[in-house]
Amino acid sequence: MKFLEGIGVTRHFGGLVAVNEVDFAVEEGEIFGLIGPNGAGKTTLLNVINGILPISSGKLYFREQCLNDLKPHEITHLGIGRAFQIVRPFEGLTALQNVMVGGIFGTKPRKNSKKAAQEAEEMLSFVGLSEKMNRQVAGLTIPDRKRLEVARALAMKPKLLLLDEVMSALNPKEVDDMMEMVREVNRQGITVVMIEHVMRATMAICHRILVLHHGRRIAMDAPQEISQNEEVLKSYLGERFARIEAERRRTID
Amino acid sequence: MILQMIINGLLVGGLYASIGVAFSLVYGIMGIINLAQGTQIILGAYLTCAMVQFFHIDPFLTLPVSALVLFGSGYATQRCIINMVGKGGVVLTSLLTFGLNLALINIILLVWNADFRGVNPSYSGKNFEVLGVTIPYVRLAVFFVAVLATVSLHWFLGHTQTGNAIHASAQNKRAAQIVGINIRHSYALTFAISSGLAGGMGTLYVILKPVSPFSGADLLMILFLVAVLGGLGNIPGALLGGMVMGLTDSFSVLCLGMQYQKIVLFLGFILVLIFLPRGFFGRRFYG
Amino acid sequence: MADRDPLGRKAIADGNWKTRSIFAVLLLSAFLAPLVLRGYWVRLLANVFMFGILAQGVNIIAGYCGYLSLGNILFFGLGAYVTAVLMTHFAVPFPVAFAASGAGAVLFSAGIGLLILRLKGQYFLMATLALSELMREIISSLDITGGGRGLTLPMFIGGAAAVNNFFYYLMLLLMLVCTFCIWLIDRSYLGLAFKAIKFDEDAASVMGIDPPPYKTAAWAISALFTGFAGSAFAYWMGYIDPGVVFEITPSIKMYLMMVLGGAGTVWGPVAGALFIELVSELAWSRFMEYQFLIVGSILVLTCLFTPKGLMDLLGKKITLSLFTKGIRENRI
């Protein structure tokens, strides 16, 4: 079985179907991208994987284990970590303490403070926040907060890391740094599923990409194929652009 | 007999609905639980009593005055006090409104005393009969005014520029600000409208039964229930919720007697919260 | 004993000899007070301690865990009635009744918590309010509880001074034990989990904290001490009725004390209880007509200018900006 697999995953809110019969599979060790226009259901899908939202129908498997009825903390203990899109660090705590909270409760059995503190320090240095370790979160910049989110997710020793738009609101240099960080996380043996709008990054580092539109899967393939998929272009950039792009490619070939 | 119960329930339900709407409005737009709402209603009631006493006019005519006084004071309260900590979360604002509630009760106590007061219009005893059901004129009038107020409010919010501005400031504060809507004013206006409605309903309430400065607490429970039943923040829902409340009210008196009426009320409330995830139309209760 | 919490933070008041000695002096004076003070003051202080317990009870579930149990007074009433009924109808001695009150409160909170703790913030608040009203109504209509007429408990044996002193020390001890528990919680993983849940329950759950057992534990501890306080109160007063023990004013006072003193701190609610109760007593005796206005105004001023409570002001320079911080951050 695949590392992370979804069969017919559906999530609806009353009459609105946010995720519609999505089949997908993530291989162990890959960086898996999740893209689609706004409102396509990407974050919802992630929330369902995480257990924050219950699945409406379909099945989800992580390393052969069915995730369907599990609570978020149980899913975390299975080895799935999550960095949120709207970064919500605990206010009033320092960066180090934030990461520690994740470290303490993130694994079963619970870690003790000393170990958690040590590991938190390691994580923070991994993401490049060592000097700001003891600073209050209120004093951190947006890119720093995003890195803090990642550090906190990593402190839970995940085997699968879910990232939700970690590169939004970053300037090009910061995007490059973040890309390198994601690659490094992956090199350490952690499988990554990332929602991203910054196409440059997604195309460059993902091994495969799943494209959602109106809650449905419209493609799941390597970046190269995705960039030439007409459906994808149409949904993202509109009919006109898709035609222009198709024209362009035909004249090149 | 049953029909009488139903009619009674619906008639008083109209009033309950309005009160619930006032509460729901502030919660829906601003996320603030106005624990002083009960006493605001009572203030409207007392103003009516005073005007009837001094000017010998029909209580219904005092409604605009009650409403206006509450409207003005509501605007000032929101603008100058509650807005100061509006982003502080439900806890803080709830405590704040509770403090205001206590202060308001005391003010009422000081101006009038702790006695119960009521008004008795000359036509209060008169009814008319239809299909074997007795309908007192007063109750019918109260029902119509209450429903009219609620429907007008709903129309106002949906179809006027100011109303739309208020809606916008609820949906997305930042976006509303960018478009040029003054949030502080919008919020103050919303609270003012809610207070004004409450004041007006106070007038209607005191026509039906006497009040004391502490009657606000009972009313608070009722308006919680109505607002929650209809879905917090949902006005048409509150209308329905009010009707249901009114019906429950009259039926429980019939079936169980006065003694158990309150038990049914509170128990029912809790059960609704636990088992009816959306009230009738609103958002989920569970996190 | 752990000096630091799991995140390595020290409390402001902990550790240095200055605060420790002040604390020791206060504690000593509290123990010796009945020997030098008149009955009126002893009773007043006993009342302060009782409110301290109630405020701490609310502190655990609301201050630390973020669940606004506005109807927490229901455990007080429950405890009072369990003790009253046991002592009056079944001739149970006080210590046993006292224990039973605590146990009853815990069981009730655990049971009802299963249904109610999963409600979102504002609904939980309303549900607890409704619950306390419901409790009051049910007790008012039962015979065994004396209905609306109330119950008279067996008299406490001893003269006026003995009564005062016994309950003074009982309340004091109860309050100290309760505060000690909170101190332990504050320093432990339990407390950290509570705070995480309060801050963001979803984020906490994604970080591996399973909220329900923690929330239930918080409410149970809160109920335990609140129930004990109710039990002691019943025996102390010798007579209770539903109106007295389920009154809504103490409900709000508890919150006011907690907020003024500092929600989520170890000693805040106690300080708040002292301040509010003394002011309350003053208001009632000298300014009875204005008592609500005074209490209400204090609440409003607290919310505006010291939303984090007095404890937060400790160790900071007193400047005007300290008091306007709340407004600057929370203003719309």
Describe what you observe in this structure.
By secondary structure, chain A is of the alpha/beta class. Chain A folds into two domains: 1-79 and 161-180 and 192-253, P-loop containing nucleotide triphosphate hydrolases (Rossmann fold); 91-157, no CATH class. Helices cover 42% and strands 24% of the residues of chain A. Chain A has ten helices and ten strands. Chain A has helices at residues 42-50, 72-78, 95-106, 113-126, 142-154, 172-187, 199-205, 223-228, 230-237, 239-252, and strands at 4-13, 16-26, 31-35, 57-62, 65-66, 80-83, 160-164, 191-195, 208-213, 216-221. In chain A, the strands form two sheets. In chain A, strands 6-7-8-3-9-10 form a six-stranded mixed sheet, sandwiched between helices. A four-stranded antiparallel sheet of chain A has the order 2-1-4-5, with helices on one face. In chain A, α3 (95-106) crosses α4, α4 packs across α5 and α9 packs across α10 (239-252). Chain A starts with a strand and ends with a helix. The relative contact order of chain A is 0.16. Chain B is mainly α and 287 residues long. Chain B has a single domain (2-275), classed as ABC transporter involved in vitamin B12 uptake, BtuC, CATH 1.10.3470. Chain C has a domain at 17-247. Chain C has helices at 17-36, 39-64, 73-89, 94-116, 121-141, 160-186, 189-199, 201-206, 211-237, 242-245, 248-261, 268-286, 291-305, 320-330; strands spanning 151-152, 239-240. The radius of gyration of chain C is 20 Å and the shape is globular.
Which CATH-level-2 architecture of the largest domain in chain A? 3-Layer(aba) Sandwich
Please trace the helix and strand order of chain B, writing H or E for each element. Answer: HHHHEEHHHHHHH
Category by helix and strand content of chain A: alpha/beta
Q: Largest sheet of chain B, if any?
A: 2 strands, antiparallel
Determine the N-to-C terminus distance of chain B: 43 Å
The CATH topology of chain B is ABC transporter involved in vitamin B12 uptake, BtuC
Question: What CATH architecture label of chain B applies?
Answer: Orthogonal Bundle
Low-confidence stretches of chain A: none
For this structure, what is the CATH class of chain B?
Mainly Alpha
- As a percent range, the share of strand residues of chain A is 15-25%
Structure annotation, total helices of chain B: 11
CATH superfamily of the largest domain in chain A: P-loop containing nucleotide triphosphate hydrolases
CATH topology tier name of the largest domain in chain A:
Rossmann fold
What Rg of chain B do the Cα atoms give? 19 Å
- Name the quaternary structure: heterotrimer
Q: Which two chains form the greatest contact, residue counts included? A: B-C, 50 and 49 residues
Order of helices and strands of chain A: EEEHEEHEHHHEHEHEEHHH
Task: Provide the domain count of chain A.
Answer: 2
> How much strand content do the residues of chain B show?
under 5%
Helical residues, percent of chain B: over 70%
